[in-house]
Amino acid sequence: MQYLDNIFFAICLIAGLGLFYKHIKEIYRNIKLGKSIDRRDHPKERWNTMFRVAFGQSKMGARPVAGFMHFLVYSGFIIINLELIEIFIDGIFGTHRFLAGIFGDTLYSYFTALLDIMALLVTIAVVVFFIRRNIIHIKRLNMKEMVGWPMKDANLILIIEFALMMAFFSMNAADSILQQRGVLPKHGSFPISSNLIAPFFEVFSFSDTFLMFIERFAWWFHFLGVLFFMNYLYWSKHLHILFAFPNTWFAKLQPKGQLNNLQSVTDEIKLMMDPNADPYAAAPEPNPNAVPEKFGANDIFDLNQVQLLNAYTCTECGRCTSVCPANLTGKKLSPRKIMMDTRNRLEEVGRNINANGKFVDDGKKLIDDHITREELRACTTCNACVQACPILIDPLSIIMDLRRYMIMEESSAPQEWNLMMSNIENNAAPWQYNQADRLNWAND
After folding, report:
1. What is the pLDDT of residues 115-157, one digit of tens each?
2. Nearest CA to 167 among 201, 118, 110, 216?
3. In this protein, which residues make up the domain named 4Fe-4S ferredoxin-type (predicted)?
4. Where are the domains of the chain?
5. Rounded to whole angstroms, how far apart are CA atoms 14 and 18?
6. First vs last Cα of the chain: how many Å apart?
7. What pTM was estimated for this model as a whole?
8. What is the CATH number of domain 252-268+293-412?
9. Coil/strand/helix, residue 371
10. Which residue, 298, 379, 403, is CA-closest to 342?
11. So what's the pLDDT on residue 2?
């Protein structure tokens, strides 16, 4: 009977990790639906970028208040989750505060005190985030695309984080009182829990048995809460907790203003400009089994794998939309919504595969069914959204690929655009005059 807790703990741990692996495997499969792209160049620069942006939070400082609060939550959870190592060991082997015997009383006291203080800072930051989102109503956090599940998801995450911190404090407070009463061996220091929570327990003169129940309940709540949180990420915007690291590693290293050209178009231009090219040379025999290359993208299958990783990584913070000139001038375009819609379509395709074993055409596409043409045409390609993103997501690349499909595959563009493109093709300028007259202005 004494091993039932340990067995139950092991079962929960294995089940939680197994479900998490299943979710990650499914996300990986969905990302692999995109086109392969080689982003393994300049590995040293990529590692530096990842450590600077993902680990170092270097871009969060652009908005000091939110950046500082996020740093508290980020660093706090990294430090507090070191406690999970002890929880895992205690849960499997039935020990109590195992690390005290490894660290020694002095070092362990500093360790637990640091955890207690960081838990308080995380709690304060979580409360501030909740107030900013629900009471102050920060504009970028309450835009149209955030209505419904996105807002509920953000609040639910904050509530879960707050509950985990309360469980952590309750566990430590009950433990500290039991240590003072000699029920448990004295290990650790809890400056926050013993001064803020423990007095509340003592006011009601809780018995040793009830305090032990509180300590055990909070311990299990914290453990199971972490497993729940870990698996909830599958449905949440908080996947960036994990994916920010690969996303920044695979980020575009070229200057932000450098748009990628279609290789097929580039080859055609080079052929046209090559004075040694034979215009009458026979074209190479095409592969009869090859799928004709599509210009741009109209669904997630046409996007590359880094773009799909971007969609899963998006934090929905709205920094991109808040600096988008199109959005600021009343246009429908929201770079955040572009990323959210891409992920929604990707998850829709994933559910299709889960149900049928393979993708069965559902008659839907990313263009029109999720993202409107009006949104895509509103983009000025200024790269403000790319610059603003704290984890190097590139909404512009998706917008450009979708817009390329509209123009190059469907010839779908406003009349003014078609006129401009015709003039560029014929006159090497957006205006309708002869190329020979291009420098006439210099004579004025």
Report:
1. 999 999 999 999 999 999 999 999 999 999 999 999 999 999 9
2. 216
3. 305-336, 369-401
4. 3-236, 252-268+293-412
5. 6
6. 99
7. 0.90
8. 1.10.1060
9. strand
10. 298
11. 62
